[in-house]
Amino acid sequence: MLSRRDAILASIFVLAPRYVEAKVARTDVAGIRRFGVQAHLGHSGASVASIEALRSASLLPTFVRDEVFWARFEPTRGVYNWSYADTVMDTIHRSGAKLILEFTFSNKSYADNDFAFPATEAARAGFSRYAMALLDRYAHRQSGRYPDLIAAVEVWNEANGSFGGGYSPRLVASPLAALTRSVHDAMRADPAYDHIKILGGASVGVPMGFLEWCFDAGLGEVIDGVAVHPYGAPEKLLTNLSLLRSWLDERGHGRLGVWATEFGNVKTASEVARLMAVCRAAPLDHASYYLAQSNATFSSGLLDTEGAVTSAGRAWRYWLPLLDDAQPVGSASLQPKTYALKFVSPKVGPFVIVWSQWGQTTILVRQADRVVGATGDALPPRESYVIGQDPIAIFGGEITEQLPGAAVISDAYEGFSTIQGHAGWRYLSVSGKAERELTLATEDPTVWTDRLAAFSKISNDSLHPSFVGRTPVVVTRRYTFAENARCRVIGQWSRGPKGDGTHVSVAQDGKILSERTLIGETIGFDHTFEAQAGQAIDFAAGPTGASKDFDEVRFYATLYRVEAEA
Fold first, then answer.
1. Which residues are registered as beta bridge partners of 549?
2. How far apart are the first and last CA of the chain?
3. Is 287 within 8 Å of 34 (Cβ atoms)?
4. Which residue, 5, 100, 320, 538, has fewest beta-carbon neighbours within 10 Å?
5. Per-residue confidence at 114, pLDDT binned at 50, 70, 90?
C-alpha cells in the first residue's frame, strides 16, 4: 500500500500536465522581480567591481543574492566585523538592486569549526543574534541604514548537499527546521521586519524526500517561501518545480512561494535562454542565476574572469527585461519532445519560446511579427524552422509542428511515473538471471532505484547502472504494448567522457534492435517494427567495466504509430 507521501507524488506524476499552469494571482508577489544573480561579494577576496561591471554591461537585475558569513562577521564571540558587512551592503545598495541575504555558515566560536551545523540551543541562539545584528543595522523599518534593501533572507545553504555539517540529509532536516524557527521567532517578534520574507530549505536540487523531512519537523510553519537550487537540464527543472508546487498545495502550504535562489551554472546562450523560460513558466516567485562573474571554480558567469560579457551573459541581457514582467499563459500543443512555452509581455505582446529537448523537429510558423534566436538576434522570416536545443522565440503568429503520418503511442519522458506499470511503463533491474522491480528512492521519491545496488537509478530522462558486489546490474525501462501496432521508435543515448563506458541497448521482446558501448558520445536510434499486444520494448543500460562511476546515460525515446507500408 502506498504511503500518503507516495500517493501524493504518484497522483502528481500521473495527472499533472507537463507543468502546472501559471497561478498568477498567488505567485506574483508585490515588489518582487522574477530574476536575480548571485554576486558572492561576501566571499573573501571577492571584488565589488563585478557589480559595476554588470551595470555597465546592462546585465544587472533588480535583485542580487549574497551572503555575510557568520564566522567572518563575528570572528570573536560578540565582536562584529562591520567593515566587512558594510562593504557588502553598501555596494549592493549603491547598485540599486534589492538583496536576498543568506545567513551562512557556522562559527567555531559556537561549534567545532566553521562548517559544523549549529544544532545546539546555544549555537542557534548565537546564529539568531548574528542574523538580527545584520538586520538591525541595515533593515529595521524605522532605524535601519537601508530599510528597503533586503527583500528576503535565506537560512543556511544546501544542508542536504555539501554543507550538512556532518549530518546526513535525513538527520539534518530537524536541526535545519529548528535553526530556521529561531531566526523566524527573532524576526517576527518585531514588526519592523515584517516586510522581509523568510526562505527555508535552501536545498540543492528539488529533493522531495528531504523537503518532506524538513516540513515534518515544522519548517513550513516558519517560512514564507521554499528555497531550492534546481540545477540540471531545463526540462527536468520544469517537471520538478511543477511537482514541488503541487506537493505544497497537497500538503496545505499553498500560501508558500517557491524561490530558486540558485539556478544555472551553465555556459551557453541556449541553456540560459531555456532555463530563464522554464523559471518563468514554472512559475517561480524568483530565480537567481549562478553566477555573476566566473571565478577559478565556476566558469558559468555572465561575465568572464576579465569582466567581458560571456555567451551566457548575452542571452541574459536579452531575456531579462522581456521575461521579468512577462506572464506565462501555458504551452502550445506539440509533440512530447518539443517545448513551446507561451507568454504575454506588456512590452511586446504574445510570444512563444520553442525548442526540441532531443534531436531536431520542424516548426511551421504563420504570420509571425518576428523570430529571434537565443541571444535575441533576428532570424530570417520563413514559413518553417528546423529547431533543436537552441531555442527560438516567435512573436505573434501561430505555430504547429510538422510530423505527418505518425501519432504518438508513448513518450518515455512524458510517460514517466512513480507507479510501476502506469501508462505501460515499468522500471526494472537485472543482475545475473534475477529481474527485480525498482522501488522509489527514499531521499528523492521521483527516482527509481535498486536498493541492493548503490547508485542504480532511473529518472525521467536518465539511467544509471550499478553492481551488487561484482555482479553488474542493468537498469531497464520497459514499455508493454496495449494493442497491435506498426511502431517506429526514435530516440537518443548520451554519455559523458569519464569512466570506463556504459553499454546501452534497445530490444523488442528480447531481440536486440541496436546496442552500443558509450564513452563521451551521443548516438541516436530509429527502428520500425511490428508490435503485438503484450509485447515489450526494453531500453537498458549496464556497466561495461569494473567501475560504476560516471556510468549515467541520458536517454529519450518516443514511440509512434505509423501506417503500414503499401
1. none
2. 49
3. yes
4. 5
5. low
Q: Which residue has the cell 534531436?
A: 359
Domains of the chain by residue range: 33-324, 330-403, 407-562
Q: Are strands 361-366 and 462-464 parallel, antiparallel or unpaired?
A: unpaired
CA R_g for the chain: 25
Return the closest-CA partner of residue 219 out of 243, 244, 202.
202
Measuring CA to CA, which residue among 561, 418, 420, 406 is closest to residue 479? 420
Q: Is 367 helix (H, G, I), strand (E, B) or coil?
A: coil
Look up residue 368 and give its DSSP letter: -
Nearest to residue 461, comparing CAs of 450, 474, 447? Answer: 447
* Alpha-carbon span 15 to 369, nearest angstrom: 36
DSSP H or E stretch at residue 409: strand 406-411
pLDDT score for 1:
41
> What is the CATH number that goes with domain 330-403?
2.60.40
**244 in Cβ contact with 226 (< 8 Å):** yes
Report the chain's mean pLDDT, rounded to a whole number.
89
One-character DSSP codes across 133-164: HHHHHHT-TTT-SSTTTEEEEEESS-TTTTTS
Q: What is the pLDDT of residues 466-486, one digit of tens each?
A: 999 889 999 999 999 999 999
Residues 230-277: tens digit of each pLDDT: 998 888 888 888 889 989 999 999 999 999 999 999 999 999 999 999
More confident position, 218 or 17: 218
What's 39-66 look like in SS3? Answer: CCCCCCCCCCHHHHHHHHCCCCCCEEEE
**Residue 211 phi, psi dihedral angles, 5° rounding:** -65, -35
By C-alpha distance, which of 296, 234, 244 is closest to 266?
234
Q: For 407-562, which CATH class?
A: mainly beta
For residue 207, whether the previous peptide bond is cis, meaning omega lies within 30 degrees of 0, is: no
Same fold, 33-324 and 407-562: no
Task: Count other Cβ atoms within 10 Å, centred on residue 549.
Answer: 11
The percent of residues above 70 in pLDDT, for the chain, comes to 91
User: How far is C-alpha 435 from the chain's CA centre?
Assistant: 32
Strands ordered across the beta sheet of 398-402: 384-387, 361-366, 398-402
pLDDT digits (tens, 9 = 90+) for 117-159: 999 999 999 999 999 999 999 999 999 999 999 999 999 999 9
* Cα–Cα distance for residue pair 114/75, rounded to 1 Å: 10
Side chain identity, residue 124: R
> At 97, is the secondary structure helix, strand, or coil?
coil
What phi, psi does 458 have (nearest 5°)? -130, 120
Which H helix or E strand runs over 335?
none
Tell me the pTM: 0.83
Axis-axis angle for helices 234-250, 208-216 (nearest 10): 30
